[in-house]
Design brief:
By secondary structure, this protein is mainly α. It contains 9 helices and no strands.
Length: 195
């Protein structure tokens, strides 16, 4: 059995604690009012320690959004696994689950309704969303590759990228009920792949 070195264990716990506190503060008062000094104080460390771990407040916010994304992706992976031989059903299930969890997420609700200024968290989902998009895309690309092993990987990557971006756009600006949106996005992905 390998024991995690003390320094790594401390850093992991510090990071998780700071993210949990930032999560609570964002829900309570909105991201624009979250202060690194308060996160540090509630975590029991100094501000420089938080800055060393996350870079700046924006880095803390991006880490917060990425953590939420990773939580969503556990459910998405399960939804995909429950449809191993049914591409349309798998895509629709994954999109619907994502939309439902996003609608129910207090953090995403706080992000979408908070101030839109320099200090806003929304860009982590929109204009600076590369970490979120790449994390989601990697999971979906692996599943698409299993489902369609003879297809060109570049074509699959393009289809996945479009599907992820469309799903994120429906999180930010929902248009229909979740099941209908999921069905439509699945149909678009399949049409793109000529299936």
């Amino acid at each position: 059995m390998t024991v995690e070195p003390l320094r790594q264990s401390f850093r992991r716990r510090l990071r998780e604690s700071a993210l949990e506190i930032a999560h609570e503060l964002t829900i309570e008062q909105g991201w624009d009012r979250v202060r690194v000094s308060e996160v540090a104080s509630r975590t029991g460390v100094s501000r420089p320690t938080i800055y060393k771990e996350f870079g700046d407040k924006q880095g803390l916010g991006e880490s917060l959004i990425l953590r939420e994304t990773e939580r969503f992706l556990v459910g998405v992976a399960h939804a995909l696994q429950t449809h191993p031989d049914d591409l349309p059903a798998g895509i629709a299930a994954a999109v619907q689950l994502t939309l439902e969890r996003a609608a129910a997420s207090p953090l995403l609700r706080a992000t979408l309704t908070s101030a839109r200024g320099v200090d806003a968290l929304l860009p982590a989902l929109t204009t600076r969303s590369a970490p979120v998009l790449s994390t989601a895309s990697e999971l979906l690309h692996a599943w698409f590759t299993e489902q369609l092993p003879d297809r060109d990987p570049g074509e699959l990557r393009e289809a996945v990228d479009a599907l992820v971006r469309l799903t994120v756009s429906h999180i930010v600006l929902p248009a229909h009920d979740h099941a209908e949106t999921a069905r439509r996005l699945s149909a678009i992905a399949l049409r793109y792949l000529n299936l």
